[in-house]
Amino acid sequence: MGLGASHCVGVWAPTEVSITTMVLAILFMIATVPGNLMVILAVLFDPNKNLRSPFTLLVANLAVTDLIVGALVEPLSINTHYREAQVCVFSVLHGIFAEPGSVNR
């Protein structure tokens, strides 16, 4: 196999793994988005401007990037794991219901 050849063609992850990683991604997204929004809003709307040190601005910048990951990447990851689990369930159901009817007698 040369460069670019796929070793995983036709190989799917087990359904349990897909569902577990989907649930974990949902939990991470639920914790990531509001938590980072609170950090950003605390720095932006600080009435006494006590949170304007270089370290706090670095933390706010990290919160912005983490918010982008939580709001954009995590839903795509959830969608990918959902579709993967759906394909696995569909292939199992197809094997159960469609295969016996196609046997020539």
Précis, in short:
One of its GO terms (molecular function) is G protein-coupled receptor activity. With 105 residues, the protein is an all-alpha fold.
What does this 3D model show about the protein?
With 105 residues, the protein is mainly α. The protein is built from 2 helices and no strands. The radius of gyration is 22 Å and the shape is elongated.
Structural class: mainly alpha
Mean pLDDT over all positions: 81
| H-E order | HH
The stretches of 5 or more residues where confidence is low (pLDDT under 50) are none
Largest sheet: none
Radius of gyration: 22 Å
Instruction: Give the terminus-to-terminus CA distance.
Output: 40 Å
Instruction: Please give the number of β-strands.
Output: 0
Give the helix proportion (percent range): over 70%
Backbone shape: elongated
Total helices: the number is 2
% residues in beta strands: under 5%
Keywords:
105 residues; transmembrane; G-protein coupled receptors family 1 profile domain-containing protein; 2 helices; membrane; single chain; GPCR_Rhodpsn_7TM; 70% helix; transmembrane helix
Give a topology summary.
Elements (H helix, E strand, L loop, with lengths): L14 H30 L9 H44 L8
